[in-house]
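Support reply, case 0932

Customer input (verbatim):
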Amino acid sequence: DIRVIIIKIADRYHNMLTMDSMPEHKQVKLASETLYIYAPLAHRIGLYNIKTQLEDLSLKYTEPEVYNDIAKRIEQTYEEQQKYIDNFSGILKDSLNKEGLNYSIKGRMKSIYSIRRKMNLQNVTYDEIYDKFAIRIIYDSDAQNEKFIAWKIYSIVTDHFTPNPIRLRDWISSPKSTGYEALHITVMGPESRWVEVQIRSERMHEIAEKGYAAHFKYKHGDQKEQGIEEWLNKLQEALETSNGSAVDFVEEFKLNLYSKEIFVFTPKGELISLPKGATPLDFAFNIHTEVGMHTRGAKVNGKLVPLSTPLKSGDRLEVITSESAKPNQNWLEYATTARARSKIRSSLREEKKMVANEGKEILRRKLKSQKVSLSEDSINKMVTYFKLQTSLDLFYRVGIGAIDNQKIKDFASSYNNAFISFFKNRMRKKPVPANIDKEEITSKYDMLVFGKEEEKLSYKLSQCCNPIPGDDVFGFVSVNEGIKVHKKNCPNAISLQSNYAYRIISAKWIDSTQEEFMAEIKLTGIDNLGLMNQITAIISDNLHVNMRNLNFDSDGGTFTGRITVVVKNNAILKKLIGILKQVNGIEKVTRT
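Our regenerated output:
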């Protein structure tokens, strides 16, 4: 229900106005979430004023210094900007009055967040942003003459000021899917400054300011559904049919919140709005889910083209379907819209489950012939043996033949016949002077610690922002790569803090000179006689590293070991892990 969305946006707006007394980490979390989801959602249903205020409030808490600096500069230059707006308006008024138009001219300062975004995109300072405001000409007209008067005003404006031809935006002839209508032009104003001029009727202006509510004020009788109503219906469908994870849904849904639009035609001449960059596959799913699911090919302007071809405004499309056609993994690379990608993912998941069910029965029969039962233990061992993530992956690979009969026989042999021999609970040996470069131990190491307890954990520096010692940073617990360290002003920080707040941990740099810390190493591999002695000799005798605890378990021909060591720094630990990885029989060495 759209009313629920509006209520949630209003609730979040109220929260953003009352956050000053909250702890900083909660402020950042709520602000990031607002900027990532609620502001785009408000934009998409036409609540532009609310969207602007949500963005500015989010910036206030995510980058307070930047927010305060821009706000102060806007205040200092307000009178100067107002004089320029008055001068610009005065030049136009005589010509507009001669035409007998009922109109008003208003100047609108760009939002703090909008200016900040321009500074980042253009890599310029505040003073180098030339279009910090826009001029709005709002006129009174009946529905029949709206378009005619808009272009008459356009003609008057361009008689006085030279327009930039590549900056003309006609959203009156082709309104945005949010319902927004206006004529936007950029002209060279006084003092050789580019000025954006927005031309709207009173009706257009009210829809632009009040969004969804005003849209229905002007809707009449059986008027054909389009624009915002059509989008809301697709939103409802997506919410009802999404069966993936919440994070996947948000990522897919957000793809189309801010996207620019193109307009293409069906074979019958109907106009279809799609996000910029859309492909024939997106078009097919936009027409109907069943059309998309059975797409075999597509013609653009009468020519057969690949399904991955980006579409352009004005293209005429014809979709070729076949009952035997069905989605495949490549389609996810072709599709760009949330609707198409969601439907494709759902279809692929269902197909994978069917293949996996067949694979499970095949595996059961083949293991039985090798005198191995399909149990939780044997399944877990096979997942590890074949370096997979889940049992579903295992069954699926058996189902498609990627894991053949010979590979299953090899696993069964190692599962049944390997000899297990381990020493348990062997404690540390006395330290012996290390034969390691002194620089490695005595040099100052800049080290990260995590959480309230300032734990020393394994981490990786994120390549998206390349943090260095001294930067303000936070830790993000990733699925496959452990803790990734990001700068607090990283381009991905807002998305991570909004979607995965429960996986964010605080972090700071410390001086690690002369520090010692304990680390636990986990080893897995194939059991070999004498492997334990070889491991302990490397740790204690070769590298002279103390062991606090040592524990090994084995089952079905494989072993799992955990060793707690005391080292001076991360460099020594990495060296130890690197040497252990080279030992024959050890398959994997990780720091836990």
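We compared this against your earlier run and they match. Two observations from our side: The first strand starts at residue 103 and ends at 109. Confidence is low (pLDDT under 50) at residues 220-226, 239-247, 418-445. Please reopen the case if you see a mismatch on your end.
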